[in-house]
Each structure stands twice: as C-alpha cells, then as structure tokens.
C-alpha cells in the first residue's frame, strides 16, 4: 500500500487543571489565539481549548483538556517531555527573555539545541515548553500570527516545533517512526540534564525542518511518567486527506496494531494508536479546519460544539464552569 509521507506535527494536546488561568497564559503571555473553545469529545464534561496561529492552521495548534482535579505530574520516561514552539528569529528569543521575565515566568535562558537558538521555560503548572528559532529553517513553513496578538508579529509564535520524546527504549520508538510512519534519521546532538550528557536522535518527515522533527532521548534510569496537570496527553501528525487517513486505518489493521480506527472529530479526522513505549500518537487530517461553525473574526469566543453534540448543548453547558473568552 502506497502512503504519502506524513507532513509533520499537526497538534499537541496537554492537560490543565485551570482553564481560566490557562487561557490567560497562552493568549495574554504567549500571544497565541484561542481558535476553538469546545469540549473533549470523549468526555464532554471538560473543556478542550485550541491555541494556534490566526486561524488554527495545521501544525500550529497547542491544545488543552481541562481536568480540574488533575494531580501534579510525576515526570519520567515514556512521555512527550517537551513541546517546542516556533518563533521567527534568534532576535525573537531575546525579546522573549524580557517578556517572560516581565511576566514572572521561569526560564533557562537562551541556548543552542540541534543548531537552533532555543529558550526553555515552564508555564504556571510546570508544562515543559521551549521556544525555537526559525532563522535557519528550510523545511515546513510556520503559520501566520494573529494580528490582534499582544506580541508583535516579528516575534510571535508561528506554530509547533520539534516534539521531544523521552523513552526507556529508543530503538523501539524509532522503529515505529521509521519503519511504519516513514520518518528518516537526520542526525543527533548532545544535551546536558543535571550533571550528565545525553544523546538526542533527530528524525524528520516530509519537507523536514522545525515543524517536522521528532527528538528522542533514551532514559532507562527514570521511572515511567505519571501524567497530571502540566503533562502532555498525545501528539498528532499531519495526514493530507481523509482518503489518506483511511489507508492508515487499513494498514494498522493489516499489521494488527491496535488502534482507535477512524474517528470523526468534525474539525479534522483522526486515528489513534500507541507506539512501542506506550506514548499515544494520533494521525490527523489537515482539514476541514475551525471555520465551519464560527467565522474567522469570532473564533474561540463561544462554546463550539460539533453538530452531533448540539442536541446536548444545555446539559453540556450546565456541567462546565463559565469561561469568558470574548475580548
């Protein structure tokens, strides 16, 4: 079966215990646009918030499930351990140092990772984030920042950068990414964690570049991560079309790899499965996008529900704590 290469990151979905503060941080501090305020389609009692570029182009979405009683994350292996966000240039990183400090956000200062300028920091719940410079990027293009962002366009976040996976057995994860998902090995670099140096392998897909890389570090010395607020739930990779996604469903069935099968998410179509170390992967189509139920100027202002949940709107809204997102 001939499959087209995956196109890079589609979105990353994480966990928050506080939707109100999450909204403030990602829109007011990081300057991303809330393009959709909806619910977790597998548990409609909780919010699902999508932050992205101006219209939620694929490859720009960082999303959060609100789980109010989520405990703290016990960091460890077999996890999506850092989500990186693209900014236009090395100069932008200097802007962000000042901005994060002005907002009281803990960061590690500007450094170089895999040949790119980077700035690691944490949100209010300890979510592990990193800004990476697109100055030398020659691969997948970034998104277009929203013109009403509090961050000037020349410094604004343009989408998702490399996703970092920490695993107990790197070979197992890399085999899934290369042999099944069509990634290719790009290289490696060394990073310091505590007093030790660790090698990080880089895999890429499609056009490559900042928005199409997975960075994998092997840490058999760590316990398995226990997720909670400030952890990542899953990473999704871009599939061109619904037709292509159905080919992936067929392939996983042929290989007897357990999966969700085809899932209708209204804003895109999906397929979920776990790689060999237990990390949840999603394949998601580039469309239809977020403007099927809201126009561009009003994205994220009201609670949006896919048509198949509209008849439950009253019950769903009654279970949710009000969240004001209209400016």
Characteristic key phrases:
alpha+beta, 2,3-Dihydroxybiphenyl 1,2-Dioxygenase, domain 1, eight-stranded mixed sheet, dioxygenase activity
Task: Characterise this structure.
The chain is α+β, with helices and mostly antiparallel strands and 327 residues long. The chain has one domain: 2,3-Dihydroxybiphenyl 1,2-Dioxygenase, domain 1 (Roll). It has helices at 19-29, 90-102, 170-180, 242-254, 313-319, and strands at 9-16, 33-40, 43-52, 61-66, 79-87, 107-113, 116-122, 128-133, 159-167, 184-193, 196-204, 213-218, 232-239, 263-264, 268-274, 280-288. An 8-stranded mixed beta sheet has the order 2-3-4-1-13-16-15-14. It has an 8-stranded mixed beta sheet with strand order 6-7-8-5-9-12-11-10, with helices on one face. The longest helix has 13 residues, at 90-102. It is globular. The mean pLDDT is 97.
Strand order of the largest sheet: 2-3-4-1-13-16-15-14
Radius of gyration, CA atoms, in whole angstroms: 19 Å
Instruction: Write down the CATH class.
Output: Alpha Beta
Total number of beta strands = 16
The shape is globular
Structural class: alpha+beta
Mind describing the biggest β-sheet? 8 strands, mixed
Helix content: 10-25%
CATH architecture, by name, is Roll
CATH topology (fold) name: 2,3-Dihydroxybiphenyl 1,2-Dioxygenase, domain 1
Low-pLDDT stretches are none
| SS summary, helix count | 5
CATH superfamily annotation: 2,3-Dihydroxybiphenyl 1,2-Dioxygenase, domain 1
Share in β-strands = 35-45%
Q: Write down the secondary-structure element order.
A: EHEEEEHEEEEHEEEEHEEEH
Q: Kindly state the mean pLDDT as a whole number? A: 97
Give the termini distance in whole angstroms.
49 Å
Kindly give the count of domains.
1
Protein name: Ring-cleaving dioxygenase
GO molecular function: dioxygenase activity
Keywords: Dioxygenase, Oxidoreductase
Organism: Bacillus salacetis
